[in-house]
């Protein structure tokens, strides 16, 4: 599936609009602060007196007293599909390449001058990052929800439907798009395309095996509609990104909450807070760290605090130590043209 390509640089957009913090590699506390309309804390770093009572997005959303009515159109998940997803994950995580194959591979990369940044777009963007996005709202019949899924289906009281899963996944894909578009154009576009391709390949599988849609023509029609929806999601969230939280909240309401008139605005606010946290973390990663797959979504029950200049220096130094050997020698597979600058 092709996607409209709109380049938005996090480096120019995020810093004026939000002052939040980053999950650090050495375990600093994590809290949120927004300089726009949503409720947040003041940037005092060492003074916690001004922190609001809500803190995390999930805690904020759970403060609502609105009643929850279970959606009767809940889609039952196919247990066989769940087993297949689990098997795919176990294979990708537990697989170890034989040493001789690794040696041959390194030699081929060196001899043919293969651009590993393009190769990583598939394994990182089309595999790891996609699984991260789809898992946020993934749920199966008669199975316990993950802590992240509970935020959407229990705390935010969203219906457990295929369409809702699509919206939750699309939101997280857009978050990654924002950072990918700040990469060099050639690589950022490739990462985006791999992510989108995997998304629609997975939806085709869900429609045929999970939703039991057997007609190829009908599946193609559904995928075309979802492609149009994804474009709309990206454009509406982009508008909120480059304007203010009120516009972003409106985009969240239209997409994630399906424009419901009785929506709890506290829930919308919690999602905006959640989005700003993710964007700040992404903004504080170098292209190489992000391109190598070092990003993970901040959980809804976590918040971020601003890093001090000293903490930023420590994180940057650790990144350079990880990716740049002191002797200047790197395995061909570890070489990258992506920058380590922030």
Explain what you see.
With 342 residues, the chain is mainly α. The chain has one domain. The chain is built from 13 helices and no strands. The protein has helices at residues 10-17, 57-61, 79-94, 99-112, 116-135, 147-155, 162-180, 185-210, 216-242, 245-255, 265-283, 287-291, 309-323. Helix 7 (162-180) packs antiparallel against helix 8 (185-210). It is globular, with a radius of gyration of 21 Å.
Keyword list:
single chain, 342 residues, mainly alpha, ribosome binding, Ubiq_cyt_c_chap, Ubiqinol_cyt_c_chaperone_CPB3, Ubiquinol-cytochrome c chaperone domain-containing protein, mRNA binding
Shape: globular
* Total count of strands: 0
What is the SS-derived class? mainly alpha
- Kindly report how far apart the N and C termini lie: 32 Å
Describe the sheet with the most strands. none
Helix content: 55-70%
Radius of gyration: 21 Å
The fraction of residues assigned to DSSP E strands is under 5%
Oligomer: single chain
pLDDT below 50 for ≥5 consecutive residues: which ranges? 1-51, 71-78
One letter per element, helices H and strands E, the order comes to HHHHHHHHHHHHH
The number of distinct helices, counting runs of at least 4 residues, comes to 13
Mean pLDDT: 77
**Tally of structural domains:** 1
């Amino acid at each position: 599936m092709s996607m409209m390509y709109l380049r938005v640089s996090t480096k120019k957009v995020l810093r004026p609009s939000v002052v939040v913090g980053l999950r650090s590699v050495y375990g600093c506390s994590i809290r949120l602060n927004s300089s726009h309309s949503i409720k947040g804390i003041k940037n005092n770093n060492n003074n916690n007196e001004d922190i609001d009572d809500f803190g995390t997005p999930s805690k904020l959303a759970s403060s609502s007293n609105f009643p929850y009515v279970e959606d009767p159109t809940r889609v039952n998940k196919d247990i066989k599909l769940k087993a297949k997803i689990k098997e795919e994950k176990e294979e990708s995580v537990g697989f170890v390449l034989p040493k001789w194959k690794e040696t041959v591979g390194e030699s081929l990369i060196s001899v043919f001058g293969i651009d590993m940044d393009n190769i990583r777009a598939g394994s990182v963007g089309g595999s790891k990052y996609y699984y991260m996005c789809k898992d946020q709202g993934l749920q199966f019949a008669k199975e316990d929800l993950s802590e992240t899924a509970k935020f959407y289906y229990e705390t935010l009281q969203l219906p457990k439907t295929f369409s809702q899963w699509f919206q939750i996944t699309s939101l997280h894909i857009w978050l990654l798009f924002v950072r990918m578009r700040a990469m060099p154009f050639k690589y950022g576009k490739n990462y985006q395309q791999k992510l989108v391709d995997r998304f629609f390949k997975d939806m085709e599988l869900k429609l045929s095996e999970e939703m039991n849609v057997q007609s190829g023509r009908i599946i193609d029609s559904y995928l075309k509609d979802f492609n149009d929806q994804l474009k709309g999601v990206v454009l509406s969230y982009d508008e909120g990104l480059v304007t203010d939280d009120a516009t972003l909240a409106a985009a969240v309401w239209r997409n994630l909450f399906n424009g419901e008139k009785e929506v709890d605005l506290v829930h919308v606010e919690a999602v905006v807070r959640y989005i700003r946290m993710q964007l700040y973390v992404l903004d504080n990663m170098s292209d190489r760290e992000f391109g190598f797959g070092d990003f993970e979504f901040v959980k809804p029950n976590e918040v971020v605090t601003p890093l001090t200049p000293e903490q930023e220096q420590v994180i940057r130094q650790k990144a350079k130590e990880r990716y740049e050997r002191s002797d200047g020698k790197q395995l061909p597979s570890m070489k990258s043209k992506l920058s380590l600058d922030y």
